[in-house]
Amino acid sequence: MQQQTGNGQSSNPFGDRQMAAHVNHGTVSIEQSRAVTEAQGKLLLAKRFPRDKFRAYEEIMESCSRPGIAAAGEYAYPRGGQTVRGPSIRLTEELARCWGNIDYGIRELSRTDGVSEMESYAWDLETNTITSQKFTVRHIRDKKGGGQALTDERDIYEVTANMGARRLRARLLAILPPDIVDAAVTQCRNTLAGKTDEPIADRVRRIMGAFSKYGIGEKHIEKYLDKTCEDITPEDIADLQGVFNSVKGGQASAADFFSLKSEEKGPAANMNKVMGQAMSQPAQAEEKPEAAT
């Protein structure tokens, strides 16, 4: 259907759309030119300095051999009676850094009352492969008694950044070679379960201390692993690390993995109360104000 102009003539539907009165046309034109020039520059640099895949793979394996990156490299959450695992946003960002020539990030496109329109994207500059996802984030903090509207700028940022990080991870995984991602996750697990100067008993004690902050005690972990703490292996510690990353990052709650009885009394009940309050707070984004994982 053609649009009518003020003099009754039909306007061309393919013509330039009129901008709102408050929009500065000069600023828009300058920003458009800047964005085009910046994109062209990135593509030219990627073609001039292509990635060395052999060196990139070696750098990825070296990074995943570091205990700090390996400990934050995997997440886990329950679904359909099974535990789903995958690379965290922190690990995914590290893979993008090592692989090279990838532009990625999160944008807030617009904001209205109570809702932000966001976009996450990843762009392989060498192959010119682009993947993006637009989504909306409501300025609400989920709680058991119902959602709580957010008005503080910091709270809104935390919610949008956290939601954006998860989608950014998916966009990066759509760009990165799947076999490279699988090899990185395997290397992280091997690092956590591999040789170390730290005795296994000390490693168990350290992971127990980390879980205790969320009201998870020795009995909960023993029931989850179906073995005593004395029988925990390095492979079990790698599994527990993925669970801990998900609980800490907000992908899952402690109750999704462990049987936390509400009728507990004394210190255990107090710890569970603290855990519930902690989980009701907005999870910190796995990404830098970014991303991820």
- What's the story with the biggest beta sheet? 3 strands, antiparallel
Average pLDDT for all residues: 79
What order do the helices and strands follow? EEHHHEEHEEEEEHHHHHH
Strand order of the largest sheet: 5-6-7
Q: What's the number of helices?
A: 10
Strand content: 15-25%
- Radius of gyration of CA atoms, rounded to a whole number: 24 Å
Spans where pLDDT lies below 50 across 5 or more residues? 262-293
What fraction, in percent, of the residue positions are helical?
Answer: 40-55%
Secondary-structure class? alpha+beta
Extended strand count: 9
Distance between the termini: 48 Å
**General form:** flat
Task: Give a structural overview.
The protein is α+β, with helices and mostly antiparallel strands and 293 residues long. The chain has a domain at 195-280. 48% of the residues lie in helices and 17% in strands. It has 10 helices and 9 strands. The chain has helices at 25-48, 53-64, 67-71, 89-99, 153-175, 178-193, 200-212, 218-225, 234-249, 267-280; strands at 3-4, 10-11, 74-79, 82-87, 102-112, 115-124, 129-138, 140-141, 148-149. Strands 5-6-7 form a 3-stranded antiparallel β-sheet, covered by helices on one side. A two-stranded antiparallel sheet has the order 1-2. A hairpin with a 4-residue loop joins strand 6 (115-124) and strand 7. Helix 2 packs parallel to helix 6, helix 4 packs across helix 5 and helix 6 crosses helix 9 (234-249). The longest helix is centred in the N-terminal third of the chain and has 24 residues, at 25-48. It is flat, with a radius of gyration of 24 Å. The protein starts with a strand and ends in a 13-residue tail after the last helix. The relative contact order is 0.14.
